[in-house]
Design a protein that fits this description.
Layout lengths: L13 H4 L7 E3 L4 H10 L10 H7 L1 E3 L8 E4 L2 E4 L10 E3 L8 E3 L7 E3 L10 H16 L7 E7 L21 E3 L15 E7 L20 H12 L1 H7 L4 H32 L2 H15 L7 H13 L1 H11 L4 H9 L9 H12 L7 E10 L5 E3 L4 E3 L1 E3 L4 E5 L2 E9 L5 E9 L5 H17 L3 E7 L3 H9 L8 E4 L2 E7 L1 H14 L1 E4 L2 E3 L1 H12 L11 H4 L3 H4 L2 H7 L2 H13 L7 H17 L19 H15 L2 E3 L5 E2 L4 H20 L14 H13 L8 H17 L7 H14 L34 H19 L4 H12 L9 H19 L5 H9 L13 H24 L12
Parallel strand pairs: 11-18, 18-20
Antiparallel strand pairs: 1-2, 3-4, 5-6, 7-9, 8-10, 11-16, 12-13, 14-15, 16-17, 19-20, 21-22, 21-23, 23-24
Helix pairs in contact: 7-8, 8-26, 9-10, 9-12, 10-26, 11-25, 13-14, 15-19, 15-23, 20-21, 22-23, 24-25, 27-28, 27-31, 29-30, 29-31
């Protein structure tokens, strides 16, 4: 509408002769024809030399020069119609024989407001009926009525009155509301001259004050002053306004009748939709109406699962139709997934949601690989109050031990053709996981994925000792790099990035001989010294970190990949040709060049053409197959020799390269049978799961080894994030129609069962206390006495205004010889014995707090009065005892000792 910097009307004499507090400015149009009409109407022919573009940027006209019918009020904002032309301007007036020109305001400036064209969709039927009644009354008015606008000027010193009366034309337009019919007077002070506006109407049948909603412009200065004061005090007046008793009674009487009438109208509308619209469209309209009529109750678990299914069908269409059917937002869906209980093992909620996601994918997008890797954790125990369990013990979902967690195994499913990837499970173990248990966990995950529609064709692991033992258990070899699960062949693949790091480490400490050639790390060091002295180095990325990597650089894949790069191979070839390096360096150059091409073909990520020979996705063409076969022969010819000249046969890294290459060739043969055109081999690496580990460390405060509870929270966030990162496969329009049909066929039934919150099920839930601030670094008797005093004081804070309990507390705190029948300290000592006998045995079980509470309640205690909070006392004691036990144990685990693997009490 108006520009951000221009606040000046370009009409002659407008800003100097018309004083008004609020103006709306409009730009000159860019269209040349409309621009010519504007400058002719406002007598600004001097703008012809500038043109429409310049006038649109720097010149404006205020709203006072346009008639009311030219405005459009849309949601409280004022717009001009496309045909609007300014037509109201100040005209000179000659009075008598006086030749001076006096500017006067024409009579077309009337006291009116524009009603907004679109209002809130939840307007009541009474408002519409009121508008109808006003229009009827306006039509019944006589055309001979004359409205008198009297302007009276009052002054306390010299009272004088001047009035002007204008004849107003008849107007039956319901869009015009008389501003002068005020609901409340404008405040004024008696000592300051004020101007009051009064209206005399010949007919006013309805004298009941009614609220009017005014959103827009008036054409008189007096009205605009009133509008400013009205909108500034609008909210305060709405809060303090009290409706008349007659209107309240009338509203109560007509409420049920209006509701029944609306229900009848909706039924008639549904019937008309069934008769006039197609079947699916009619069902959709009916479903939207039913959803809007449904009361705003908390959605059940089934409703949120249904919303997830719709989101996975077509995420873009879901965001469009969500307000119509009152579906949960994407943020609410994220919270819904985030609130799931995800203990170690396979989770039914995760697989049910993944089933809905896979259901909307094509058959080729359901082919996936399984990535398995492990991550180090810091030993730490944490009592989860809402779930009533201790997190931090060895837990594989089926087996629990009191061994502290030091590692976690994460399983992630990655699509081979599509773009989805999803972490599905994790397992806590104490550092060394048994191979047979790991095999069973992987087999269960593959079978579970098969049951929800995802077919696993490949298993990718690292080269850590745990997974090397797993490959031996599965009998993986160079000739047969696969195993069977329910008659489905699964290919075993080692992570290519990890193999590159292992090859770099072997290359640093050994010499490699192949085809009467030698590859040595000393050649790379010599090349680096020569190349770093050149003005324009041939390998600018090569640094000391590549030759002598530290602890962090050893596990960073890029340092190993940059050593085996084409730039270093080209630099070696250049130095050999120039005679700066000996001819024996040719073996090192060929070795590096071969691994550069091999990494390109096993780490492809795009189907587009690339400058490199094998930079695009794997398609199984003749060139790629010949290169892989040559690579297999190349690895078979490699001999590893240590610095003493002894051949080493225990290093099997090149055998694992051969297993991986054969597995990828066989995987491509399987996918080719399903009409797959290409394969991005980068999806077979551990890049996705390594990104998961980096995100978990970042969410845990950039800790290298996060605690189990921090890992659990971050894992739940990542599960919800990957589930909702969905791009629908196939045609989006078809998926949108499927979603609409699904909405139409769904009956929006209101769940009568209230969803139970986890917070309401907390067993050891007590009011907030400061028991964590108690310092127990005291002798045993003093610490026990301090704990008893704290518990008794907390009970008195809950149980107030009881003289008996106050006297009991004073007696317990001051007396040294206590009666065994009602001794508070003796009762706490009995609770301590119960805790010591049972906590270690129950620490790894579910519902720990509930079981401990049941055992503690069996201890007899005679309270001083019947209202003494014994239940609160027991819960608070258990909360304190669990907290201090785990706190002491976590401090012990910080010491560099490995003997504290079991909870010590």
């Amino acid at each position: 509408m108006d520009g951000p910097n221009t606040r000046w009307c370009s009409a002659p004499g407008c800003m100097m002769n018309i004083k008004i507090m609020k103006r709306h400015f409009f730009r000159f149009p860019k269209e040349r024809d409309r621009w010519l009409d504007w400058i002719k109407a406002c007598d600004r022919m001097d703008l012809m030399v500038f043109g429409p573009e310049y006038a649109n940027l720097f010149y404006r006209l205020c709203h006072l020069h346009f008639r009311v019918e030219m405005f459009r009020n849309i949601e409280g904002k004022i717009y001009l119609s496309k045909e609007a032309v300014p037509s109201i301007f100040l005209k000179p007036l000659q009075t008598g024989n006086n030749t001076s020109l006096t500017l006067f305001q024409p009579i077309s400036f009337v006291n009116i407001f524009l009603k907004p064209q679109s209002r809130n969709k939840n307007l009541s039927t009474d408002l519409s009926s009121e508008v109808k009644m006003q229009s009827i009354k306006s039509e019944e008015r006589s055309t001979s009525d004359v409205q008198c606008i009297e302007e009276t000027y009052m002054d306390t010193l010299t009272p004088s009155t001047s009035s002007r009366i204008f004849l107003k034309q008849d107007c039956n337009n319901t869009d015009v509301i008389d501003l002068t019919s005020m609901d409340f007077p404008i405040p004024s002070t008696p000592t300051i001259p004020s101007k009051t506006i009064s209206v005399c109407a010949t007919q006013n049948g309805d004298r009941t004050p009614k609220r009017r909603y005014w959103n827009i412009s008036t054409q008189t200065p007096e009205a605009w002053i009133y509008v400013d004061s009205f909108f500034q005090e609008k909210r305060q007046m709405e809060k303090s306004e009290i409706r008349a008793d007659s209107l309240v009674v009338k509203r109560r009487k007509t409420f049920h009748a209006d509701k029944e009438r609306d229900h009848i109208n909706l039924d008639e509308f549904k019937t008309a939709c069934v008769n006039l619209l197609p079947h699916n469209s009619a069902l959709l309209v009916s479903a939207c109406i039913n959803a809007c009529e449904k009361s705003k109750t908390k959605k059940s678990f089934e409703d949120k699962q249904f919303a997830l299914e719709l989101f996975f069908m077509a995420s873009d269409a879901y965001r469009s139709y969500r307000p119509l059917c009152l579906l949960p937002t994407v943020r609410q869906l994220w919270r819904h997934i985030r609130n799931w209980d995800m203990p170690p093992g396979l989770n039914d909620n995760v697989f049910n949601a993944l089933r809905l996601k896979i259901k909307s994918l094509t058959s080729q997008e359901r082919y996936c690989s399984l990535c398995v890797n492990e991550m180090r954790l810091k030993p730490h125990l944490f009592y989860n109050l809402s779930r009533d369990r201790i997190i931090g013990f060895h837990n594989t979902g089926t087996e629990k031990r009191r061994t502290l967690t030091r590692k976690v195994i994460v399983i992630m499913a990655c699509s081979l053709i599509g773009d989805w990837k999803q972490p599905i499970a994790y397992y806590f173990h104490g550092g060394t996981c048994r191979t047979d248990i790991l095999k069973d966990l992987i087999f269960q995950a593959i079978i579970k994925l098969k049951s929800i529609g995802a077919t696993v064709y490949a298993l990718t692991t690292s080269t850590s000792p745990t997974f090397l033992r797993l490959s031996q258990l599965l009998e993986i070899s160079v000739e047969c790099p696969s195993f069977l699960i329910n008659d489905v062949k699964v290919l075993y693949i080692f992570d290519v990035t990890r193999l590159m790091r292992v090859t770099r480490n072997v290359f640093k400490t050994h010499e490699l001989y192949f085809r009467e050639k030698r590859a040595s790390w000393m050649d790379i060091e010599l090349f680096f010294r020569r190349d770093s002295q050149m003005r324009l180095p041939l390998a600018p990325k090569l640094s000391v970190g590549h030759l002598e990597p530290n602890k962090c650089q050893k596990v960073d894949t890029k340092y190993a990949i940059q050593v085996f790069s084409s730039s270093i191979a080209a630099g070696l070839s250049t130095h050999i040709a120039s005679g700066e390096l000996p001819m024996e360096t040719v073996g090192t150059m060929e070795f590096i060049h071969h691994f550069d091409q091999l990494f390109d073909i096993l780490n492809s990520s795009t189907s587009k053409s690339n400058t490199k020979n094998f930079g695009q996705a794997f398609t199984g063409n003749l060139q790629e197959m010949n290169f892989l076969q040559q690579t297999l022969d190349f690895f078979k010819s490699i001999k590893i020799v240590d610095r003493n000249g002894v051949c080493v046969k225990s290093i099997k890294c090149f055998d694992r390269w051969q297993m991986t290459i054969n597995a990828i060739i066989q995987l491509w043969n399987v996918l080719k049978e399903h009409q797959v055109l290409f394969l991005c081999t980068k999806k077979l690496n551990h890049e996705a799961i390594e990104r998961i580990f980096r995100s978990i460390r970042r969410q845990s405060g950039n800790r290298v080894k996060p605690t189990p509870i921090l890992f659990t929270r971050a894992f739940k966030n990542l599960v919800s994030k990957h589930l909702l990162e969905h791009s629908s496969g196939g045609d989006s329009a078809v998926n949108g129609r499927k979603m609409l049909k699904r909405i139409a066929s769904k009956s929006f039934s209101v769940s009568t069962l209230a969803e139970v919150s986890h917070r309401a099920q907390v067993v050891l839930n007590v009011p907030a206390t400061n028991y964590r601030n108690i310092d127990l670094r005291l002798p045993e008797k003093s610490a026990f006495k301090r704990v008893c005093e704290f518990l008794l004081n907390e009970c008195l804070r809950v149980h107030v205004n009881c003289d008996v309990c106050i006297a009991y507390a004073a007696k317990e705190n001051n007396s040294s010889n206590k009666d065994a029948s009602n001794s508070f300290n003796l009762y706490i000592s009995s609770l301590e014995g119960t805790f010591m006998r049972n906590f270690e045995k129950l620490s790894i079980e579910e519902n720990l707090g509930a079981q401990m509470l049941q055992l503690a309640q069996e201890t007899n205690y005679k309270p001083p009065c019947s209202d003494f909070p014994v239940a609160f006392l027991v819960k608070l004691f258990l909360r304190m005892r669990i907290y201090f036990t785990l706190l002491r144990h976590n401090k012990i685990c910080k010491e560099p000792r490995s003997s504290f693997n079991v909870v010590e009490l």
